[in-house]
Amino acid sequence: MDLLHTQLSNIQRQLSFVSVDPINWKLYVQAFSWAVTLFESYLLLRQYPLYSKTEPPPALAGHFDPEVFKKSQAYGKDKAKFALFSGIYKQCIDSLMLHYGFYAWSWNASGSLLARFGYGAEYEILQSIGFVFILFFLSSIPTQPLSIYGTFVLEEKHGFNKTTPSLFVMDLLKSWGLAFVLGSPFLAIFLYIFKWAGDRFVPWLMGFMISFQLIMVIIYPTVIQPMFNKLSPLAAGDLRNRIETLASKLHFPLKHLYEIDGSKRSSHSNAYFFGLPWSKHIVIFDTLIQQSKPEEVEAVLAHELGHWYYLHPTKMMAVSQLHIFTILALFPAFLHAPPLLRSFDFSKAISAQPPTIVAFLLFQMILTPLEAFVSIGMNAISRHFEWEADRFACELQDKLKAEDMHDMGDRLGRALITLHVKNLSTVWVDWLYSAYHHSHPTLTERLKGLESFQSQREKKKM
Ligand SMILES: [Zn+2]
Fold this sequence. Notes:
By secondary structure, this protein is mainly alpha-helical. It is 72% helix and 5% strand. The protein has helices at 2-14, 25-47, 66-99, 102-116, 124-140, 144-157, 165-197, 201-228, 238-249, 286-291, 294-309, 312-330, 332-335, 338-343, 348-352, 356-394, 396-400, 408-423, 431-437, 443-461; strands spanning 231-233, 254-260, 271-276, 279-285. Strands 1-2-4-3 form a four-stranded mixed β-sheet, sandwiched between helices. Strand 3 (271-276) and strand 4 form a beta hairpin. Helix 18 packs antiparallel against helix 20. Bound molecules: zinc ion. GO terms for molecular function: metal ion binding; metalloendopeptidase activity. It is a multi-pass membrane protein.
């Protein structure tokens, strides 16, 4: 533990200039956040012309009829235009908020609100919660039109939207309520740990974040998801038998097998699993069940169980813990830095003793350009995991010595094609756009991969 603290104070010493030098942090954040937005716009412009192609890639030609391909190109084009507009629009809003000192204003607004109820500046945690909610609420208002347009115009036009206006409003209110009910205690404990542990907050805060994530794993399926969707046990029959057999052969600790009414909001389809190591739940979208044959859904589940077999969620969580650790290790240098708050328009009095939450949020904004690189790395890891899970599905026959699984690769390929066709997913992809945005390999890459896993298997046998 002491070694950890010595290393952490070394980092802090390296960054000690932050607490004294009057750096123009605001200009830095403006410049870098615009740079990220412009780069993302550039990627969209690289991708955009591909939506004008009139033929699918040769590998997919047999699977897309011309009408479907035309539809998917039109959908992709509309989505790209919308993404370009919303990216720049959101950046303009953020930029204006920064320019006019919105963060300092929100802190003061929370202070005056609490003062009305007789709570003074000594109630820092209470004021911090008020501050975060004022920020969160006010900054989400300008983006609401985007989400209304996305749901009721864009998705509607291409036949995906199943959300009604009242469901949309209910979802919004529920998610705000949920953010408040879960966010307030989280924030209170988070800030309390800083006060209580002083300079040695890193291991304590890490411990708290990990426990919070584990609690969410339990609460999410039992409390949160049922607020938005109906999960019902998957009906007895061919599909249920197939999945239960597969799970038991792999010793997957399947506790519940659900069908979810994803079609209530959208006709996009999917399947996933979650839970604690000894008790897992599988959830399949009703749309996937309607669109694919039981043996194809089984292959999708074989892929999902590949993620479990190779511990992908655990590995992802380890990477994200490392990420959180890095952020926390750098933070102390920014925690007691009056020049940081001064450059974001906070008054001299507040800047002299920076509130933890304010310093943390400003610090997060400074990290934005770095986060873009982190997300590129995370996507690359995720694409590798997808590839591993696809290979897992192909090799199941050998792993389980089950002759009837000899065509798992073909079945998965067919299911992926159906998913792509029904979701009108993009088939032509710019490599740089894909490297930056995609957590999954493209359909063409996956089909090629499945084919080569299959031929490798056959070679091994000969
Ligand atoms: Zn996957």
